[in-house]
TrEMBL record:
Pfam families: 2EXR, adh_short. This is Short-chain dehydrogenase TIC 32. Coiled coil: none annotated. Belongs to the short-chain dehydrogenases/reductases (SDR) family. PANTHER family: RETINOL DEHYDROGENASE (PTHR24320), RETINOL DEHYDROGENASE 11 (PTHR24320:SF283).
């Protein structure tokens, strides 16, 4: 639909529906810049509000005047901010937070280029790194709640977006973690610019006392991409889309010729006009085709956009480990300044997701005493408090609803998973849900049965799906990078195992007998879900089969969920008389399968006392049965067969 020659004005016109009514903030807006071209294009399609940031009010008002000369009804507001100054960034963020309730799109556009001599910001940070990356990093985190508020109310997932502008200049250099501030320290080869590539084109980098202007610029632009990558992983369950625009519009032909993609002989690609250079920013900010898309390989993904299409960034700009490393480096770079500001400058947390209802929770089901753990039934989970009902028990796999109707229940103790929603969803789709079996190898029959019986009794030893193995391996690698998983439940003649996070994962067993299936990891399991049987003496009988003994040896248990079959109200007495091993009593909850009620052990014990309360009058004498209501009379006669929901209604 769009090409490298498309203009921002053309793209905005095509995406008018997506722009109309949005609140948009753009940094780095000055006359004759990409920021002003971006603002002008958005203003043409009736946004609700435009906030423009710049170092001087003169620059902003000049752009505002230009906009109002063409689109006089557009609401445009100035934000004074110097991205090289952390003090100025904090003041600007406070200004924004006081003005708006939510922000639909943030375009981190500001940047400086190829500063000739090493210059430090007022915070002691190399000026290009401070302005192009660190200022945007801090500002984005400080206004993050406004973006999350917009994402919560958005009509579609991914409508709320953060756009970080990078450029092909990122190909000049990776982030120099060993000497990011250009203090003439030793830098390992993997962090160095590829100077041989420059020499092969008859060019050289001009170093002076450990500083090179293009390398400093390239580092800052690589940092912008890594920032996008890390932020996207952290905020994916917030429905926020994080994009990077690899702009081609450059003010320095020498910079273009210096990139690795420049043709031999130093012939630089043709420069774009400002309107063309801003087109990809508009595309990244508003195109609906980018909603909800998670690529398998980060290097070829919608997080990197170039010429209004997916682009390919350098490998060092696509590494999630380097993105996490940069996140830590950012706070180290601001440590002195943070210390000066004191308690008001705490690190903003990118995963502030307390309102989000759909973080996936993993459950391991052990349906019988000799089965292997099964990764089963990820669910859109609702946070439940004792005494409330589950109103959002929606499974992402409808076929599993009958088998596991309570998988989406969460206790207050459950924290949001470290593994991003999209990554869990991708693992589920690639590794768990069978797509297409392309090969099945079965055991050979001894011929003692009929053909029909032999067909029915085949044991599948091996099967593959149409999922490309490299894609699956990549996703599994990503999952282990995002959370502390380890191998567990190794079994069989050919070793098989499951990746487990013992801190987050819930182990589901059909009854106490099945605890034998996790005995090898009893010292590590922390969260357990037990389903009841339909016999009143279920728990007591389990003691004869060492069920309670196994439970008492699980010294790391910090949470137990007991799923009650309808009528299993004797668990109130069980809770008081037997206990649940080492698990703290406050972290033991009872989930009524019929009603969705969640009760603590103490609350369930009160249900057991209910019969006593209604069995005697205020003077301690048995009441006249003729005066009891039909419901209470029924309850006294058939107490054990009532559900918690029925008890709740009577009470």
């Amino acid at each position: 639909m769009f090409s490298p020659k498309s203009t921002a004005t053309e793209v905005a016109k095509a995406l008018a529906t997506q722009i109309r009514g949005k609140t948009v903030l753009i940094t780095g807006v000055s006359p004759g810049s990409l920021g002003s071209a971006t603002a002008m294009a958005i203003a043409s399609q009736q946004p609700q509000r435009l906030l423009l940031g710049s170092r001087t009010m003169k620059n902003i008002h000049s752009v505002i005047d230009d906009i109002h000369s063409v689109y006089p009804s557009t609401v445009v507001e100035p934000i004074l901010m110097d991205l090289s100054s952390q003090k100025s960034v904090r003041a600007a963020a406070a200004d924004v937070n006081s003005r708006i309730s939510k922000l639909d799109v943030l375009i981190n556009n500001a940047g400086i280029m190829a500063v000739p001599d090493r210059t430090l910001s007022e915070d002691g940070i190399e000026i290009q790194f401070a302005t192009n990356h660190l200022g945007h990093f801090l500002f984005t985190n400080l206004i993050l709640k406004k973006l999350q508020a917009a994402a919560k109310d958005a009509k579609k997932e991914g409508d709320t977006r953060v756009i970080n502008l990078s450029s092909n200049g990122h190909r000049i250099s990776p982030v120099r973690f060993s000497d990011w501030n250009f203090e003439n320290k030793a830098v390992p080869p993997e962090e160095q610019a590829d100077e041989e590539a420059y020499k092969s084109r008859g060019q050289t980098l001009e170093w002076s006392n450990g500083y090179e202007k293009l390398v400093a610029y390239g580092q800052s632009k690589t940092a912008s991409i890594l920032f996008s990558l890390y932020l996207r992983n952290k905020l994916t369950t917030s429905f926020l889309a994080i994009m990077t625009n690899l702009i081609r519009h450059m003010n320095l032909a020498k910079l273009q010729a210096s990139t690795k993609n420049a043709p031999a002989g130093g012939n630089a690609p043709a420069l774009k006009s400002l309107d063309q250079g801003a087109a990809t920013s508009i595309f990244a900010a508003f195109d609906p085709s980018l909603n909800g898309y998670l690529p398998i390989f980060p290097a070829e993904s919608s997080i990197y956009l170039e010429d209004c299409h997916n682009g390919i960034a350098e490998a060092y700009a696509s590494d999630p480990d380097l993105a996490a490393k940069l996140w830590k480096l950012n706070w180290q770079g601001m440590q002195d300044f943070i210390g000066e500001l004191g308690s008001g400058a705490e690190q903003p947390q990118p995963a502030d997701q307390t309102y989000i209802p759909d973080s996936l929770t993993r459950h391991f089901h052990l349906p019988s005493s000799h089965s292997s753990p099964v990764f089963s039934c990820p669910a859109y989970a609702a946070s439940l408090l004792p005494g409330t009902k589950d109103t959002q028990n929606i499974l992402s796999s409808p076929s599993q609803q009958t088998r596991c109707s309570l998988c989406s229940l969460r206790s207050p103790l459950m924290s949001f998973a470290s593994l991003p929603f999209e990554l869990r969803s991708r693992i589920w789709s690639l590794a768990v849900v069978p797509r297409h079996i392309t090969k099945v190898r079965t055991k050979k029959s001894d011929g003692s049965f009929s053909k029909k019986q032999r067909q029915k009794g085949k044991d599948i030893l091996y099967e593959t799906t149409s999922t490309p193995p490299p894609a699956l391996m990549h996703v599994c690698h990503e999952s282990r990078q995002q959370a502390p998983y380890q191998r567990a439940f190794t079994a069989g003649t050919e070793p098989r195992w499951t990746w487990v996070n013992f801190e987050l994962d819930i182990f589901c067993v059909s009854n106490l007998y099945a605890l034998a299936d996790i005995v090898s990891h009893r010292s590590e399991a922390q969260r357990l879900q037990i389903r009841t049987d339909d016999h009143p003496d279920w728990y007591e009988s389990a003691t004869r089969y060492n069920g309670l003994s196994t439970l008492s040896k699980m010294e790391s248990l910090r949470e137990i969920q007991v799923v009650l079959e309808p009528g299993d109200l004797m668990w109130g007495d069980v809770f008081a008389d037997y206990g649940f091993g080492c698990c703290p009593e406050d972290n033991i909850t009872f989930l009524d399968e019929g009603s969705g009620l969640v009760l603590t052990g103490s609350q369930l014990k009160m249900v057991g006392d209910w019969r006593i309360v209604f069995s005697f009058d205020s003077e301690g004498n048995p009441p006249d049965p003729d005066r009891l209501s039909d419901e209470i009379d029924y309850a006294l006669d058939d107490f054990w067969h009532m559900t918690l929901a029925q008890m709740h209604e009577l009470n």
